[in-house]
């Protein structure tokens, strides 16, 4: 069975469907500067509207790219803490739009006066 929302794929072929924060931490921890230098997280669909990637930097640390064309977002940052990267990506991923996932609307549950 494939990912319900998105998958995380490492350069070395490791894949985790709908990864948790702990799973992202593990995938990032497994990155190195020789044959597993990056991972990409994106929906399992043709021409996805968004993606995030984490790549090992030559000078140490990681480059994190977050891009969402539907929201006109493109951010590139550098970070050394795997904990911070995994947490920040988990929060960012939770705000993405996924096909088939119900959306919430502000005021949908409010009681009109």
What does this structure look like?
The structure is a single chain. By secondary structure, this protein is an alpha+beta fold. 19% of the residues lie in helices and 29% in strands. It contains two helices and six strands; from the N terminus they run E-E-H-E-E-E-E-H. The chain has a six-stranded antiparallel β-sheet, covered by helices on one side. Helix 1 packs across helix 2. The chain is globular, with a radius of gyration of 16 Å. The N and C termini lie far apart (46 Å). The C terminus is likely disordered.
User: Helix count?
Assistant: 2
The oligomeric state is single chain
Strand order of the largest sheet: 2-1-3-4-5-6
The ordered string of helix (H) and strand (E) elements is: EEHEEEEH
**Estimated share of beta-strand residues:** 25-35%
Tell me the overall shape.
globular
| Mean pLDDT value | 88
Question: Into which percent range does the helicity of residues fall?
Answer: 10-25%
Which structural class should the secondary elements be placed in?
alpha+beta
Separation, N- and C-terminal Cα atoms: 46 Å
**Main sheet makeup:** 6 strands, antiparallel
- Rg is 16 Å
The tally of strands reads 6
Q: What ranges have pLDDT less than 50 throughout 5 or more consecutive residues? A: 104-113
């Amino acid at each position: 069975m494939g990912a319900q929302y998105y998958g995380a794929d490492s350069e070395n072929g490791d894949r985790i469907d709908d990864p948790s924060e702990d799973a992202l931490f593990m995938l990032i921890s497994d990155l190195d500067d020789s044959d597993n230098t990056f991972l990409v997280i994106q929906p399992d669909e043709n021409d996805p509207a968004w993606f995030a990637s984490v790549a090992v930097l030559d000078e140490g640390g990681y480059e994190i790219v977050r891009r969402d064309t539907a929201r006109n977002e493109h951010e590139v940052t550098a970070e050394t803490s795997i904990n911070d990267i995994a947490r920040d990506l988990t929060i960012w991923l939770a705000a993405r739009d996924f096909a088939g996932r119900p959306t919430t609307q502000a005021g949908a549950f409010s009681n009109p006066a």
